[in-house]
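My hope is that you will study the record closing this message with an eye to the fold:
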Amino acid sequence: HEFRTEDIDGIKGFLWSAGATVLEGDCIPLTVDGQTIQICGVDDPEGVGQETMGRQLAQAAAQADPDHFTILLSHRPELIHQYRSLGGFDLILSGHAHGGQWRIPGLLNGLLAPDEGLFPQYAGGRYDMDGATFIVSRGLAKESTRVPRLFNPPELVLVDVT
């Protein structure tokens, strides 16, 4: 969870010492089997402020090479139009909405989501957007939320980028 990337009780230091790359407006290439993709990431604005997250987003978009498939990792689905306004991201992965907490399968994707309110537009699932794909995970949180989940089991999303 990218809520904050400053070093809190040694957590960031632990992540770095474990070999993790913390993305704070960075866009890094990753080559597997001769194929290069880029992974970009920004902090949650609740932790660093909207202005800082906006600068990080602009920095990541500027680093994105249009010749490579580019993934943006960003926590808040309600900011999708801000992510899309800069272009350059082929796949955007988010969470935060908890799947809308309550669902009516086949009828209602989500009733209430943090920072999106009632009937959230991006509670969970896949959304195709003019050449980009946006995936919102319902997340794994079950016990830590104030509102219990109803017909909305925790999920771990696997994305096959081929």
